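Supplementary Methods S3. Input chains for the assembly prediction are listed below.
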Amino acid sequence: MSTNSILAPIQSDLQAVEIRLRESIRLDYAPLANVFETLIESGGKRIRPALAILASKFHPADQDKMVTLAVATELVHAATLIHDDLIDKSPVRRGSPTISSRWSGTATVLAGDYLLARAADISASIENFRVMRIFARTLMTICEGEIRQDFGGAHWPPNRAEYYHHIESKTASLFSAATEGGAVLSGAPDAEIAALKTFGHNLGMAFQVVDDILDFTADARELGKPVGSDLRQGTFTLPVFYYIEQNSPAQAGDILSEDLDRLVNTVRNSSAIDASKAEARRFAKVAQDALAVFPDNEYRRALSGLATYVVDRTL
Amino acid sequence: MSTNSILAPIQSDLQAVEIRLRESIRLDYAPLANVFETLIESGGKRIRPALAILASKFHPADQDKMVTLAVATELVHAATLIHDDLIDKSPVRRGSPTISSRWSGTATVLAGDYLLARAADISASIENFRVMRIFARTLMTICEGEIRQDFGGAHWPPNRAEYYHHIESKTASLFSAATEGGAVLSGAPDAEIAALKTFGHNLGMAFQVVDDILDFTADARELGKPVGSDLRQGTFTLPVFYYIEQNSPAQAGDILSEDLDRLVNTVRNSSAIDASKAEARRFAKVAQDALAVFPDNEYRRALSGLATYVVDRTL
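Predicted structure tokens for the full assembly:
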């Protein structure tokens, strides 16, 4: 099922998000406005805004604040993409040249900072301090996680436990901030807030594991970068850990001395891919199970559908 | 007069700020905690926290929130210092190696981001949305100003008007956010908020002009960097603009082709220094005049004293 049909129940909310997203980056200073426009208009699936909106639907929430929360979520995501592309030296993102490939490192850093400040400014207008703090702390988690990676050097993360910790801070933290934030905004009781936070966390984990699988199995043209980019840059992800565990535990540190094209191809065709996919499915199942506290309505079905989609997607 | 004696009326508040500053950067992850500790403990004059506190004193403000605001102000300042040192490639700050000289560009960027997130987290606990938005917008102003500088390239800013615009975004914006934030927190009426914002803005302008003068006139050992660093890096500041206006308007673009040691020395001994000092004094005077709406109490005298200090300081 496509995200469009899964998200049909919140289509009008998502349209409001698109309009507000564009408004939020309309700036006097043209160079900055242009790069943000390229980044925002090149799309992405808006999964994080959708999560914030869906999580706010089980109790009556202020529609304007809900849209604002969704916009802030996407702006934080966009800011982290800008800094990620700089860190990874990625030339292309969603078919467009990255900001970091066009601007100096300095200007790229500042562009990301600007978007974070804009997100904070917009969040303040929601006038909910608990939501505000959820997002500030998520940003701290994301930064600390990336610093740990930077300090860990090549082959980072060093083992499967560290890998899970890293994708938690890198991806799952913002997914769970979106669902927790939406739930808090709607005035949901604590047990439901906890359930939606659990849902967001596990969906984010599944999402990132699948991203890391697709880095091996998708088509270079669809990816917009060479297959196996992470491994080529010396970063080990879940398929690599499974490959090492299943094949050659003794030489884990040495695999990068092999021919990289051959290594990427070997991992791609190994059972490590299926094992990783099973792991993503387990995370998605935990996410779906957390929804049991809610009535079986269109919003719960949409959330559950997202969990299935995230695992089954081919890009 | 020293800042210690000027700030005597708020000494206990400033001590509370020091304690809370240290608490705010106590983190599990040691590498990050250590660099923040070095940055925060190496001091600085805490002028921004002092401004936030003094501006909140004309009406009864919640002491805990006032200290929180002061801490958030200093954290935003610290974050911009981290990014500034990276941008300027400065090896030393206040006698200690900069984070950017010890860490990768990536980790340095993220360390700054982390502090901004921490500042946002702390600010949210003040539970005042107007204050929150003042700071978010200040951060946007700072980022946009630095991006303009980065895009402007060498010799930037190109003229005196651009110079004022730049030091407004770089320095005065956070000074005025501190005074405006303090006033808002205390529930001051709009006219007083405006007066304190004007005070902060003009004090910040005076402060930065004097910083730019000291870059020429102070001792290299006291500065911790070569005399005339800005000019050596191709950045024109107020003394340079006055020097060009007074001496050689035709060759403004060419002065950097001269011998740089000689050029720095010439500017240092020219009347451009006195002209710049007079300009700083004008800004300080406008700041002091804005205080006329307040009763002549110890807090107003402290603010006025700060304006005098900022111009007369030798480092």
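The first helix of chain A runs from residue 3 to 6. Chain A has a mean pLDDT of 90.
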